[in-house]
Amino acid sequence: MQDQYILEMVDISKSFPGVKALDKAGIKVRKGTVHALMGENGAGKSTLMKILGGLQPADSGKIILNGKEVSFASPRESLDHKIAMIHQELTSIPHMTVAENIYLGREPITANFWVKEKELNDRTEKLLSELEIKVSPKQKMVDLSIAQMQLIEIAKAISYESEIIIMDEPTSAITEREVEHLYKMIRSLTAKGVAIIYISHKLNEIFDIADEVTVLRDGQYVDNKSTKDLTRKDIVTMMVGRELNQLFPKVEADIGETILEVKNLSREGKFKNVSFELKKGEILGFAGLMGAGRTEVMETIFGLYPAQSGEVFIKGEKVNIKTPADAKKHGFALITEDRKLTGLFLPHSVKDNIIAASLDKFIVAGIFMNEKNINGICEDQKKLLRIKTPTIEQKVKNLSGGNQQKVLLSKWLLTDADIIILDEPTRGIDVGAKSEIHALMGELVKTGKSVIMISSELPEVMGMSDRIIVMHEGKVTGIVNRKEATQDLIMSFATGIQST
Amino acid sequence: MAQATAKSSSDLNKTILTILNKYSIYFILALLVIIMTFLSPAFLKPMNLINIVRQITLIAIVGFGVTMIIITTGIDLSSGSVIAVAGIVASHFAHPDEYPLIVPILMGLLVGLIAGSINGFFVAFIKLPAFIATLGMMLSFRGVAYILSGGHPITNFTSEFDFIGSGRWLGLPVMIYVLLGAGVLSYIILRHTKTGKCIYAIGGNQQAAVVSGINVKKNLMFVYSYAGMMSAVSGILLASRLSSGQPTAGLTYEMDAISGAVIGGTSLAGGIGSIQGTIIGALIIGVLNNGMDLMHINAYYQQVTKGVIIVLAVILDRARNK
Known about the structure:
The complex is a heterodimer.
Chain A: E1 5-16, E2 19-30, E3 34-38, H1 45-52, E4 60-65, E5 68-70, H2 75-80, E6 83-86, H3 98-102, H4 117-130, H5 146-159, E7 164-168, H6 176-191, E8 195-199, H7 203-209, E9 212-217, E10 220-226, H8 232-240, E11 258-267, E12 271-279, E13 283-288, H9 294-301, E14 309-314, E15 317-319, H10 324-329, E16 332-335, H11 339-343, H12 350-355, E17 363-364, E18 368-369, H13 371-385, H14 401-413, E19 419-423, H15 431-446, E20 450-454, H16 458-464, E21 467-472, E22 475-481, H17 487-494
Parallel strand pairs in A: 3-8, 3-9, 6-7, 7-8, 13-20, 13-21, 16-19, 19-20
Antiparallel strand pairs in A: 1-2, 1-4, 4-5, 9-10, 11-12, 11-14, 14-15, 17-18, 21-22
Chain B: H1 2-22, H2 24-39, H3 46-71, H4 79-92, H5 102-124, H6 130-149, H7 159-166, E1 168-169, E2 172-173, H8 174-192, H9 194-204, H10 206-211, H11 216-242, H12 253-263, H13 275-294, H14 299-320
Antiparallel strand pairs in B: 1-2
Helix pairs in contact in B: 2-13, 3-8, 3-9, 3-11, 3-12, 3-13, 4-5, 4-6, 4-11, 5-6, 5-11, 7-11, 8-9, 9-11, 12-13, 12-14, 13-14
């Protein structure tokens, strides 16, 4: 077994104005292993990797690569030292082809700087077929599904023939089926001696694929152990610093009458004849693969897009929802899939974000905003949801992912909605915040609200839902009760193998 | 002991940096005033200071409306042309022994409302880029100005109408009271009303605003109509001050207004801006121009300076918002 470390990051410290992101943190990675880097949001994982990737300089500390001390002033230098990084946010050029994206900046050229198109496409074809990715090199990135885009990003990092590949949440946008494919690629890489630093919040994956785990907490190094010497509980305790009970605390609530009924809802090109019911006090899960149409169904119900046919009934009465304002009036709330893109007002304060959907609540004398009331209520929300922020005036873009999601939730909770639709509510969020959000969902249904939750994480869907609706390519293929739900059953509906 | 002082001095540094950052435009204005006073003793004379404020009044008033538009990530290039048409229309109704003062004022404001609404319609409903919609308005309304005036200035006003732009009350030009009124109204709308919150939200993230249930179309219509009316106010004041409605009135005013807003911290990326910032921005331009006048610097150099200042201001703004 290799005892030599290919990479050692020692005593790395980094501060930003007002925040000490890293406090003598570090990681030691062996050749040919998958080394997981874990920690809550804000623990410093991304910062540590950004330093390794040449995006940020460290304030102090050492990086030792293959026994030699190095430092990187740019991503280029990091790449030249055979370190490749796959970012959490997809960084592709939408209107260029797959081949162009993969070889961006290092296209094969003639002496006259003319790009050798054929060679470019051939090389890409070879790479993709070796990795068994079924995409043509000539396709435009924008025409690919998000899952395919993520696979291409991975292919790109592999094409650099690096010795170390950093993968930051590589499975955030892909589903179970593609995850297996990713594991296959990772195993063949480690067999060749490549070291992989794997950042993920998904404990399942860590135990599936990682050999060792390093845990950071509040910018500091906590510990480093082999995965075979750890249990899930151990890792969570290391990350959070305290014992965390049961990851999916299913709270029993009284389930009542049908509060929402959707009949034969169709939207051209997105979904067809979708019908389902939601009962009061229920958590209704929506499972399925990427592109199944779940988000589109919810967006249509919420009035963001028009349906071509179908009806929606609330408490037995037909409703006609044409805009989000209509949806709000009928008691809906929608926490969208991509909080940064369509949910939050990043340049604005926590306060301004929280009141954004309830502005009418704070009106005084017809048109004025009641500042004192606003401040009071936002402080209450901050306490209630335990939003980690120095003040409510802090700009939301400076908060961690988990806290941003809490702000978004807070915004909708303030509207007193009866039917709360959550689209991937715990995506890209650390374990601590995740369980807080799950607990919150449980409390909501206890008070008589109803929840629809779209999630691509099977354990979450199975752990939290009373019933699960499974969709495949725009159609509802199965409705499963909590008691009957197994991973295999849901997957067979999700992949279209089975259909009720 | 040494550690404690080290920590508190670095905390102090941080606080100073934060204050400098937040109030940078105030410091710059103060610095400019000091420099100008140094270079020209006539600068601080009350007459001169009142002059400065009077000179920036028209730009600042337009700037208030433009600030709101830029906050929503839009832009308005039509202000100058609206100034001309509003001034000309008001002039038509301002002749002696015809109408009471309220008529030319209302008619001028109506021009602003119509122009602004057309802009707003194209941006909010047709989803045309604001640049194109207001560019079209800018060009066509300038033509309207020439058509309505027959190509020559319109003169001969009632003394009441002359009073608005040229008169004084309690020692200060009437124009300054209009500036104050427009400023206070704009400030209140932006800072203390639901509409203001909606404006910032639309600029901060339009998609998120839609999902939050905000009526984006309605708010955009408001913002462009309001800006149109602010331009009209300036147009009426200008016509009164010049004692004539001119088809060439307001040329390049839209650029000055945008400059004032941007220098004052309004971000072209949207979501950030303030009325008080715009006033400071306009004052910075005004102080610079006035100072250079007092030093008898060629007007053309003043033009160059304006361009340099706005580029520097945006660079500063980027660094500030990082």
